[in-house]
Amino acid sequence: MYEIETPEVAKSEAYLALQAPASDREAAIKEQLGGLSRRTYVHTGTYTHPDTTPESLPCKFALVVALEMSTPEEEEDLNRWYNEEHMDQLSKIPGWKQGRRYELKEFNQKGSMADKPVFKYLAIHEFVENNFMESPEFKHASSTEWRARIMKNAGRKARVFELYEKF
């Protein structure tokens, strides 16, 4: 994942030129992958816990949730749920530092990734520890009536990532 100033950066000559001088090792890795998926999302909001400092980010663990809704009305309900209920509840989970939301701008998929679903909405939640899903606060935030209504018709994929190295 890379943070860029605008979506146009991903189409710039300088960005595209980075693909050309791939090392032999990088080219071999790409070949073994069988497919690639590049997605550009636009930032729509950040929610930060009051005790979060710039030095505490990025956190070691990130919960990444991708969502797709069926109708514009469901999208409006999703956004209201995040803004009015969900982010506040997540902020009460011990070790939660920040949540960021994004909306898909464009994507390009190749090889074995060509037929994989691409979700319109993306949320990245950062945690200090990996045991956040065991907390009563997480279980509560994941089991409200509003959340159940949202998820009833949503396409959803969630994964936890661990930060390997910070540059």
Task: Outline the structure in words.
The protein has 167 residues and is of the alpha+beta class. It has helices spanning 13-17, 24-33, 72-90, 136-141, 145-152; strands at 35-48, 61-68, 96-111, 121-127, 155-162. It has one domain: Alpha-Beta Plaits. Helices cover 29% and strands 32% of the residues. Strands 1-3-4-2-5 form a 5-stranded antiparallel sheet, sandwiched between helices. The longest helix has 19 residues, at 72-90.
Task: Looking at this protein, list some descriptive labels.
Alpha-Beta Plaits; 5 helices; 5-stranded antiparallel sheet; 167 residues; single chain; alpha+beta
TL;DR?
With 167 residues, this protein is α+β, with helices and mostly antiparallel strands. It is 29% helix and 32% strand. Strands 1-3-4-2-5 form a five-stranded antiparallel sheet, sandwiched between helices.
Would you spell out the secondary-structure blueprint of this structure?
Elements: H1 13-17, H2 24-33, E1 35-48, E2 61-68, H3 72-90, E3 96-111, E4 121-127, H4 136-141, H5 145-152, E5 155-162
Antiparallel strand pairs: 1-3, 2-4, 2-5, 3-4
Which value, in Å, is the CA radius of gyration?
18 Å
Strand order of the largest sheet: 1-3-4-2-5
Mean pLDDT, all residues:
90
| Strand percentage | 25-35%
Alpha carbon gap, first and last residue: 13 Å
SS content category: alpha+beta
What's the total count of β strands?
5
Bin the helical content.
Answer: 25-40%
Shape: globular
**Largest sheet, described in full?**
5 strands, antiparallel
